Amino acid sequence: MLHLDTGNTGFMILCTSLVMLMTPGLAFFYGGLVGRKNVLAIMIQSFVSMGWTTVIWYAYGYSLCFSGDWHGVVGNLHNAFLRGIALNTPSPNDTIPALVFIAYQMMFAIITPALISGAFTNRVTFKAYMLFLTGWLTFVYFPFVHMVWAEDSCNNGALKISLAGLWCTTSPEWRPWRPSCYVGKRRVLDRGPHSIPLVALGTGLLWFGWYGFNAGSEMRVDSVTAVAFLNTDVAASFAAIAWLMVSWLNEKKPKFLDC
Length: 259
Description:
The structure is a single chain. The chain is mainly alpha-helical. Helices cover 67% and strands 0% of the residues. The chain contains 8 helices and no strands. Helix 1 (6-33) packs antiparallel against helix 2 and helix 2 packs across helix 3.
C-alpha cells in the first residue's frame, strides 16, 4: 500500500531531473573532447539514448528489471508497457509512487550506455550504435539490474553483494575499453579536444547531476541522504584538486584539461 510522503516524493522527482541532466552534460563533455568533425556525431549518441532508451524502458525494460524472476537472471514481461502500474502503486520504498521510482531508474538506464559512446568516436556508424544500444540494454544492463537490485531476484547474500561490486567497479572504467577492442582503431585520429569550454560545461552539468545520482539512491530524505550528498562533493573536490596538483607539477602550469 502506498503511504505517500510528499517530501520524499518531491525530493525523488528533483533527483530524477538531476540524473536526466547528466546525459546532456555527457554530450557536451564528449563533444568538447573530440575533434570538430565528430562533435555532432558523438553528441547525438547521448541524446538518442534519452529517446530510444525511454521507449525500450517503457516497453519492456522496467518489467525485465523489476517484475518477477526467471532463474534469478532476469524478470518477466508482466509489467510490460507499465501494465498494472497505477497512480497509487507503491515503489519498493512505499512512501513514493512506483511511477517516480520507474522514472528515476530510467534515467540510470539512459546514461549508462551513453557513457560507452566515447569509445565509438570514428569507429562505428550510427546504425551500428543503435543496434548496440538496443542489444546492450536488453542482454546486459537489464539482467544485471535485476540480479543486483530487484527484490524478486533469488540472488541474495554474498552473490548479490559480489554482483553489485562487480557491476560498480568494472562498468565505469572498463565499458569504454571493451567495445573499442572489438571495433578496432579509429579511422581518423583526432588532433585533440576542439572546445575546452564545452568540456567545462559538461563537467559542471555532470557534477551537478551526481547529487541526484548519489543522494537520490537512498530513495528517501534522511541522514544517509545528507551524507551521500556531502560525500559526492567532497570526493569530487579532492579528486579534482589532486589531479590539478599533479598536472601542475608535470606541466609547470595549472591546466583545465591535460591535452
